[in-house]
Amino acid sequence: MFYIMFLVIKRFKALLLHLGLRRGERMRLFELDEPLHAAVTRLAEEERRLPEEVTSDLLAAGLAQRQRRGYLVQRWDSLSVREQQVAALTCLLYTNRQIAARLGIAEETVKTHVKNALIKFGVHGKGELRKALDGWDFSGWDGGGQGAA
Fold first, then answer.
1. Is 20 left (phi over 0), alpha (psi -120 to 50) or beta?
2. Which site from 100, 103, 136, 145 is most exposed, i.e. has the minimal number of CB atoms within 10 Å?
3. Whether 6 contacts 30, CB under 8 Å
4. What number of CA atoms fall less than 13 Å from residue 120's CA on the CB side?
């Protein structure tokens, strides 16, 4: 059986299970389920690397992605409700003029909300904001509602 050693950190247990890892009976070992094992083995063969190395890299990438998502959620939560509305519509490719008309506010107010959102996310333009929130589902905001990202 294929095992990887991993020091269990309480907050990462759910992620490990989500990745298809199960805790072994003794020590702190995790067994890959069969489909995940096959995928890792295939990838290791393609990259001419050890399966343990590939597994370690994939796990590190998954943890980094999860950490990045947590950061983005914190940034999103720091926005006011109006800034969230403007940011969501911006990500849906609405222009400032369209956002202003949709929300019934002045275009200058939209610009202020966009500027505040950019500052809070630490980005320098709408394109960077869209890139940072790529993959977030803003379809609920398009219909006039306030869908969660």
1. left
2. 145
3. yes
4. 18
Write out the two tokens for 51.
């399966």
**What tokens appear for 40 in the block?**
């890792």
Q: 71 to each of 76, 81, 128, 133, how far by Cα in Å?
A: 9, 18, 15, 11
Domain boundaries, the chain: 3-70, 79-142
Q: Rounded CA gap, 30 and 111, in Å?
A: 50
Question: Counting beta carbons within 10 angstroms of the beta carbon of residue 30, is it exposed (0 to 12), middle (13 to 18) or buried (19 or more)?
Answer: buried
User: What architecture (CATH level 2) is domain 79-142?
Assistant: Orthogonal Bundle (1.10)
pLDDT in tens, the chain (149 residues): 334 433 333 445 555 555 656 555 444 566 778 888 898 889 889 999 888 888 878 877 777 666 677 778 899 999 999 999 999 999 999 999 999 999 999 999 999 999 999 999 999 999 999 999 998 999 988 765 554 44
Cβ atoms within 10 A of the Cβ of 43, count? 15
